[in-house]
Design goal:
heterodimer; A: mainly beta; 6-stranded mixed sheet; 5-stranded antiparallel sheet; 0% helix; globular; B: 114 residues; mainly beta; 7-stranded mixed sheet
């Protein structure tokens, strides 16, 4: 069974601290996506990682992909309250990369002042 | 340029009724995906369509659920004879192709079954 597992599932942290969210997956894929979801809202695309060793950064967030280890990380630097949300990783498992995404369970991040 | 448009935003149905969820992809996008999200869970893939074609329906329940993306008009996800377990948020996403572009999501339809 194809699995995408995130940890932790819940993360409470102080403003200014650093932390990393991990996304492990069980199948071969070189396309991984990170999304953000605010409560009751839709999903916002954060990063697209398309090859082994890919690293993308936007503001306080940085994502990386290791296809050999089947692992992606989302690193948060100096967290601020505005980053509070649920973060999902998703792996493209469709044949010929048809866009069928398998999502992780999500990591709910709570940043406290 | 409007994003992915879903309607209705909220839909209430009684058990046994039919639910129709609509999705208009972003302009220029020909690939449509439907996902279901249960409370406190991630999204589960249901179906992938292009115009007039179902490409991958491996995530669709075998009965009561169907999807279409006609030549003209929005994509429709149809649930017949709804049951309580169908209560969820249904998200539609679209992309211009499969070349690694991210899928853009609509705001979802929250379906509640009484």
């Amino acid at each position: 069974e194809l699995k995408v597992e995130q940890n932790p599932l819940f993360l409470s942290m102080q403003e200014g601290k650093n932390y990393t969210i991990y996304c492990n997956y069980s199948t071969t894929s070189d396309r991984l996506y990170w999304y953000r979801q605010d409560p009751g809202k839709s999903l916002e695309s954060l990063f697209v990682l398309l090859s082994n060793g890919a690293v993308k950064q936007e503001g306080r967030l940085m994502a990386s992909l290791d296809t050999k280890a089947r692992l992606s990380t989302l690193h948060i630097t100096a967290a601020v309250h505005d980053l509070s949300a649920t973060y999902f990783c998703a792996v493209d498992v469709g044949s010929s990369n048809t866009g069928k995404l398998i999502f992780g369970q999500g990591t709910t991040l709570q940043v406290k002042p | 340029n409007a994003g992915v448009m879903q309607n209705p935003r909220h839909l209430v149905r009684r058990r046994g009724q039919e639910a129709r969820l609509r999705c208009s992809p972003m302009k220029g996008h020909s690939h449509v995906y439907w996902y279901r999200q249960l409370p406190e869970e991630g999204l589960k893939f249901m179906v992938y369509l292009q115009k007039e074609n179902i490409i991958d329906e491996s995530g669709m329940p075998k009965e009561r659920f169907s999807a279409e993306f006609p030549k003209e008009g929005p994509s429709i996800l149809r649930i017949q004879q709804v049951v309580r377990g169908d209560s969820a948020a249904y998200f539609c996403a679209s992309s211009p192709g499969t070349g690694g572009q991210p899928q853009h999501f609509g705001d979802g339809t929250r379906l509640s079954i009484l």
